[in-house]
Hints:
The protein is mainly α. It has 3 domains: 4-57 and 169-245, Orthogonal Bundle (Endonuclease Iii, domain 2), CATH 1.10.1670; 62-152, Hypothetical protein, domain 2 (Endonuclease III, domain 1, Orthogonal Bundle); 266-317, no CATH class. The protein has helices at 36-53, 65-74, 80-93, 97-102, 105-112, 119-134, 143-147, 154-165, 174-184, 194-204, 210-224, 242-245, 307-317; strands at residues 4-6, 12-16, 20-24, 266-268, 281-282, 293-294, 297-299. Strands 1-2-3 form a 3-stranded antiparallel beta sheet, covered by helices on one side. A two-stranded antiparallel ribbon has the order 4-7. Mean pLDDT is 84; it is low at 1-30.
Amino acid sequence: MGYTAFHPTYETLIFRIDRPLVVTVSEPTASPLLPALDVAILQGTLLSWYQRYGRQLPWRQTRDPYAVWVSEVMLQQTQVKTVLPYYQRWLTVFPTVQGLAAAPQQQVLKAWEGLGYYARARNLHRAAQVVAQEHGGAFPTGLTEVMALPGIGRTTAGGILSAAFNLPFPILDGNVKRVLARLMGLDVPPQKALDRLWVLSESLLPPQQPRDFNQALMDLGATLCTRRQPSCTICPWRLYCQAYQQNMQSEIPVAEAKAPIPHKQIGVAVVWNDQNQVLIDRRPQDGLLGGLWEFPGARWSQGKRWQPAFIANCKRSWPSKLRWAIA
């Protein structure tokens, strides 16, 4: 991996790999969890590793905030390999925020079809309309303004602002939580220590290079510091990682007790008239699969006939348009 040379004032770190990489850290700030020198070393080693091993992804080749924003939303709870073809097609269909804002919702949902978690598409569509109408089509650069947009939380906002504008806002997605939990040897589930993890993410972020650092942090979690069988022996942070030093990579992050998976029984029917027209219904905008179309149906309990519930549900939806009878 080469060698590391330190300036006596700890202001400049030089990392030698294929070619010199100079990372300047002005007056490194001590974190409540790490001393200033450790912060500077962690910043430099990660940026050096990223320069050599960072993934080549299409949204890293642009500074267009709209394109970066689309990638950040698609990557929520979805792997990169799944997102790649959707990302390319999306920007072909909706190349600008104005184009997305003007599109009908059904076209937006169709373009998202198969990617799952459709609330992301509906929120992205609504947020595009806000940006077009209230911000003149220009993506805002203030954290509060960005987080006010539908579907954007602190991590997504930090990801967009750092990647598109190189602004120093931290991130804390699933990969980053895992990396930082192992780094600090967190002894509770990450969800129970979000304040500490945000403090660590923010204190590690170099103000001059937030774009590359945040991307590097995500790559570290996605490629080396994986959920199972992490590649600790080639990790640039292994000497500072408490989980590695204590041989607890398999126990950290601590798992949180999972709620039981809910099971619902749904009766669905195909209904048509004497003109062979088939009845379909649109789901409410909020909730699971919101805004999508489906055959009419109804929930029912084990051991009970579902047809009466189905008929009652249909009568509520179309009280005066249809006549119902159990066949």
